[in-house]
Protein 1
Amino acid sequence: MSKYEFVSISEPLDVGTRIHFDDCTNNAYFVDLPNSVVYRYDLKNKITTKAKVGNEPLGFMFPVAGSNNKFIASLTRKLVFVEWDGVSPEVSKIEPITEVETDMKDNRFNGGKIDPWGRLWAGTMGPADDKGETIPNRGALYSLEKGKLKKKLSNIGISNGLAWDTKNMKMYYVDTLQPKVFQYDISENGEISNEKVVFEFNSNGIDGKPDGLTIDKDGNLWVTAIFGSVIVKFNPNNGNMLDKIVFDTPQPTSIAFGGKNLDEMFVTTARIPVGNVIPPSPAGTTYIIKNTGTTGFKGDRYKE
């Protein structure tokens, strides 16, 4: 029997992702990307609410510092500010910030996260080809700091997981089309350098593709394997796999630590059709995983 305890906190979503724990309000936020819906799970009252954000793919939606109802989000290729009270079925305001890759109309934002310094990191991906496979090298990774946008990486397949080690000044990153996790040196002003691979899926016998990423207080990384049914814990210093959490559904997506003691793991899953077959229930469910044996870090807010 697994030591891990799974607690469901959402209805099945088509592509649940980008989960974020906000300790200021004791809420977890996550999105259903293709349906442009944001969800809030109130940890105190154990209630999940949701709101329609727009009619475009909603890549992520994270809280903004200094407000409990303002968020930064992506809609297709646009970055926007959103106002939502956390309970109404629709958001009250959407304010544009900037738009990227206007010359590539089929691209869209995908992965994103706020770093410990209050910057947004957000990456794009290209469209699918005739076989339904994402066209490689069409995306890029950007940072947004106090409204100023900078391109950080090019030739990205599907931009996804991000994590930071502020003690050793490292950034970790996932391009889902490459079965590995990358490490960069990062400065306090957000410059990255010295790309290095710190974990390989293939050599560790991990099926699927890397997606979400988080770091714990011991400096170990946890990466979800979409289409692989697992979360893998590993040491980025030597690439050694330390543990696996096995799911009853094949598509775990994003991951974050949260809860009162930051020792619970919040994980979204998807139910993306494979060969025109939609994975059965519980695919698409969002979970809190208890008994992780470690603690992580709270989600950070975007600083305007």
Note: The radius of gyration is 18 Å.
Protein 2
Amino acid sequence: MDPASQDINLNSPNKALGVDGEAGLSDMPAEGAMGSPNPLPPGLTEEEAEDLRTELAKVEEEITTLRQVLSAKERHSTELKRKLGLSPLNELKQNINKTLLDVQTSNAYQSASATWDDITHTEAYKKTQETLSQAGQKTTAALSTMGTAIRRGLGDMRNSATFKSFEDKVGNLK
């Protein structure tokens, strides 16, 4: 059979047949096996298949039981945590603190911390820190002076005749 002529639509009723109706690979049961719902794999007797089905049923039943037991244990764990006052938020805090401690004791953090200590003791760092501190102080002084000037300007404006006239008119509207 020519592979190009095969029906590749898996939903097709002819998925196992070529264009000429010739049988190819199929998930259809072999002839003579139409009477049983699941054909036996080659090399497996009916008795072995029945044993496997029985074992499968037992395993599936055990899985169901284990799921029920696990669910009951989870509910019990939740109840115990509630009685101890452990909330999910507290657990999250504990996990974060543990992770933070793990990070702080890691080699990478220790190395970075040592490098930072080395940097902060350099002359260039000290000069930069001093310069930035002076710039901050000068900026604070300039902003304070500007605030004082604005306050004074607003006070002068409030005492002006125009503002007094405007204030009187607004007061009369009430």
Note: Confidence is low (pLDDT under 50) at residues 1-35.
Protein 3
Amino acid sequence: MIPVPLVVCVMAAWCAVYLTDTLLKSSVKHRNTYESWLASRGLMLSPFHLRWQTTMFNRLFAYCARINPHALYLWFSSGLVFGVVSMVGSVVLLVRTLQQTLAQMTTDNPRMAGQQALQVVVPGVNLPTSQLAYFFIALLLSGVIHELGHAVAALREQVRVNGFGMFVFVVYPGAFVDLFTTHLNLISPIQQLRIFCAGVWHNFVLCVAALTFLFLLPLFLFPMYTTGAGALITEVVQGSPADGPRGLSVGDIVTGLEDCPVKGVEDWANCLSHLSHTPQTGYCVPVASLQPSWAHGRAFKRLDGTMDCCSNNSLTDLCFSYIKPQDRNSKEREFACMPVRKMVTGTRVCRSDEDCVTHSHTASVCVTPSLENQTRFIRVTHPPNTHMLFVGYPPHLQYAVSLTNFVPRFGFLHLDLPVFLETFCKYVVSLSGALAVVNSVPCFALDGQWMLNALLEATLVTVVTDRQRRELIGFFLLLAGSALLAANVALGLWMVTAR
């Protein structure tokens, strides 16, 4: 569901802006001054749309267009090839995404959603409000780089750039360049294609650059941060299973989950997944420790068939099961309610009694926590503190904390700097790649429309000599592409907001 407070705030803000604009324009005293002020600053305002245009960057674009003409020719020619290939690829990707969306609509399997390559992003719904800044800055950067490609390519092909601008539509920011249409119509279709393909080409390059930076981030941050020493806790959700006096704290370094070593965030996730899908580990306890006085009564069977012997719901005791050392042939398990921290502190994990015999000099037995099927007992190692003991569903522990691979070498370094760089790079990769895909689609009002028209003019002149027939072919192709994109957006939006 769309968060109502967010919608109300956005609507209220736009209503206030539009009401102020209407009042000033209807005022006899302030109308001329206000309209002159808007014109001098290149501002245009309409319902849910604010646009700003300027010529201050034209010299920068012209300077970039004069840098090494031969290299620029090869650069934008590569963009032309990429743009033509991406048109076909974007259609295939949208068809695949539409199939996945339709399949997801007919099933209740939540894993189907994660299989989609493209998803509609709605702030406050499937985009956390805490990451809105990453989203909008990365989206604006991707848009500016996209339009920079168009502007430089146009000037290189002797097409005048009237200006560059930015806009905000509802809540989404973007950028644009205003090209001189007369010049654009005078150049050849191949030259036009270089200009029209330059935007998606630069988005692709930005995506690759951000991905490379993300991959080399440990190398860039090596003088200040180290990796491979464990997973560093950067945030603990208040009231979560990891919170509390003996829980995890910001700055702790997790080095292990049970007998599974943790060297980074990926190991943390893999270990939790492994512990979720394997039987509960046991612990080697001396036989002398199994005192009958620790048993608080007979074990009773839970609804799922497992046994519980701690009927007093103690916060410090846990029901353990084991096989009596003197009666191992029968394989009948005994149950005892014992103080959990005392029993597992400093003990070795085991799967059977034989593991304890091999590694212990004293008579020991393998005791296993008797828990419900999906529940696990997990010791979290975070030296120099004592183990954090977790009893519950392992994914709950995974979502209770935020972690990073980067451990600062010096105390004055901020824990969140690597997290900020990682997150921002991931948003740039996602959004710049998405812009490249969407703008490549042969669809009305997108780059794909002009790319397709120029491509048809460059390739079908000798095959279809009649210009009107070529335009008719282009129209139907654009109609199909627009319908495909609209179906993906509409169904994707419904899936995000209605479920």
Note: The longest strand covers residues 161-169.
Protein 4
Amino acid sequence: MPKKNKKGKGLKPKATLDSLPTSDDDRETADNWSTASILSDEGHSSLSEEGAGPDESSAQENFEDKLKDCIDGLAEKSAQTRKTALDGVMKALSKKYIMDFLLERKVTLTDYLLKCLKKGKGDEQVLAARCLSLLCIQMGLEAEDIFNEIQPQLLTAMTDNSVALKARSQCAIGLAVCNFVSCTDIDIVVKVLDALEGIFKTSYRKGDKSIPSHTPDTTHLHASALSGWSLLLSIAPSFLVMKCLGKHIDHLPDLLHSSDVELRIEAGETLALLYELAREEDEDFEGKDIDNLCETLKKLATDSNKYRAKKDRRQQRSSFRDVLRAVEEGDVPDLTIKFGTESVVIDSWTRKKQYDAFCLVLGSGVYQHLQDNIVVREVFGLGAPIPVGTKPVQKITKWERTHYNAAAFKALTKARSKHRDKRSVMVNGD
């Protein structure tokens, strides 16, 4: 019987705010479209900080003017100009929370982005899909009306074999994220889950039990689809979780034998999530062949094959040690992400999956969105953004507490010694 470990001991943090994942798009620079001011330090202060003075107000106006130029650039005939404009929009949406600005332009921006997704090729489609994801993260349920246009287009592009694989991968992530933050219709979610599993299950064993061989771009698509599928499953009702569990719990271990490290790790963490969700319904859940599964996980957690890249081996061993403990003992993540004066605790595989998804789309901008974005803060139970100028009670560090206690003890000892000194004793009657 697996024992649930509520403390999540043993799981080491895999990410810090200084090493959050960023895509190649974040590192691209534009040659013929100026977005430098959007990404400048002056334009990076959060909206909650604007209005503190003329400099901040001017920076905000400059930020919005440049973003308007980028949005207008999405309608240009030149593919390169559109890509550069998309890059500027993507960086602006990922680095800063601009809900009020978007409310007035969401229809126009959505229309432009969808045209780039449908008519563009390769990198343009990748950028458009990511911008659509960011738009929904910015607006949440406020984007539910435009979501009805976004969702079918992302679904069509993801399943279209004529679309570049890297664009289909981004559409898979975008489809899941947009559904996660902007959809309340369970029927649509089920439809998306079916479409995503239709992609990654082609990496399951064939009828002859052999492992399929795919190109790196194809396995990346499968890993993206599996990541999106598990994200949506993290908030699915229990009846849907158990249905998906029954369909995939015996086949997901096939992906642990993939030649692609990304797909192996994604499969392992999805299994950890499924076991966590299943044990919420039945704490004794083990699956049909937990012994064989644990044996496979142990091999991956101690893999030292020289034909694998050193970085891949290290990443794989770290991940599968955690997954093994999750399956065997019910262990959960134990990670605290600090930002500003606040922090968010990642204390379940469900929460980890959601945090990883936001990191994937927002990149290093996740820090700013944790502080300001109402949608992101609601997901992690952080409440309303803390107003500027409000200083929460500072927690004393362990070092400070130790030295404070030592100083207090010394002062107390000295005071007591003085009080007990015979020279300070008052004689009754004197």
Note: The mean pLDDT is 83.
